[in-house]
Design a protein that fits this description.
The protein has 257 residues and is an alpha/beta fold. Helix content is 40%, strand content 18%. The protein is built from ten helices and nine strands. The protein has helices at 16-28, 50-54, 67-79, 97-105, 119-129, 148-155, 175-184, 195-204, 220-228, 242-256; strands spanning 9-12, 32-35, 39-43, 61-64, 91-94, 137-142, 160-170, 189-192, 214-217. Strand 4 (61-64), helix 3 (67-79) and strand 5 form a beta-alpha-beta unit. It is globular.
């Protein structure tokens, strides 16, 4: 069955650049996107980590847990004048196909992608598929990344380093617009693409939501955070992508008639 959004108003809360891509898909499927980016993502300048880039060849695996991590990693590699084959001697793990696609854009292929796009599954399936752990490992992450993988590495006594290459912050400039939208617009769906978007929403929301929208989370980690903050019912797709979210919305609408 084709994806059809029936003109429904869908609030998009993710970072501005990524929100544009989401909005285009909503329009493509006949919905009405309402963009209020609640996050700002910026690459970090980390001069004290220059040595890590100079010694990338020593790592057996490099783990990328987001597309943002990929993009900021390569910006830093360019800044430090690393060669174009900077990761040629490493095996690469990507948390999902979006992250793997970003690696491909830079000329690299992911050697491992978990079946479900979250850190817990990434850890469990990697262990199941690699009985002999090659180390050291380099973990590429952001300031709000969860500690699932570092804890897992420590439990298995795996030698690893972390490289924090981007920062996620709340976009408080959007607070007024968020409260205007939730009070005056008749929203049908509110979407969250990360735990950080859920947290930012509750941090900035001052007005009551005047409509009765459904909340849509990109995956189980995000829906669990939403539940912790008081949203007990969410739509969560089996495929943890924005396409999966739109399919879930479409199925929900079709089932309701």
């Amino acid at each position: 069955m084709s994806v059809t959004l029936h003109g429904k108003k869908i609030l998009i809360t993710r970072e501005e650049k990524q929100a544009k891509e989401f909005s285009e898909k909503v329009l493509q499927y006949g919905g009405t996107p309402v963009e209020v980016p609640l996050l700002r993502i910026s690459c970090k300048d980390i001069p004290d980590k220059r040595q890590v880039f100079m010694n990338l060849h020593r790592y057996k695996w490099v783990f990328f847990t987001s597309a943002n991590g990929v993009e900021c990693f390569f910006k830093l590699a360019k800044k430090y004048k690393c060669t174009s084959d900077v990761l040629s001697e490493c095996k690469l793990a990507a948390v999902g196909h979006k992250t793997a696609s970003c690696l491909s854009d830079h000329g690299y292929e992911a050697h491992f992608i978990p079946s479900t796009y979250n850190a817990e599954v990434m850890a469990n399936e990697f262990t199941a598929n690699h009985s002999k752990m090659e180390e050291p490992i380099l973990l590429i992450r952001g300031n709000r990344s969860r500690d699932v993988l570092p804890v897992w590495f420590n439990e298995l006594e795996i030698t690893f380093d972390q490289l924090e290459v981007y920062e996620t912050a709340y976009n408080f400039q959007a607070e007024t617009e968020l409260n205007r939208v939730i009070q005056r617009e008749k929203l049908d769906f509110i979407t969250f693409t990360s735990p950080s978007t859920v947290e930012a929403f509750f941090e900035m929301k001052k007005n009551q939501i005047t409509s009765y929208p459904e909340f849509v989370c990109i995956g189980t980690t995000t829906s669990e955070r939403a539940a912790e903050l008081g949203i007990k019912h969410t739509l969560t797709p089996e495929n943890f992508t924005i396409d999966g979210m739109l399919n879930e919305i479409s199925n929900y609408l079709n089932e309701r008639g």
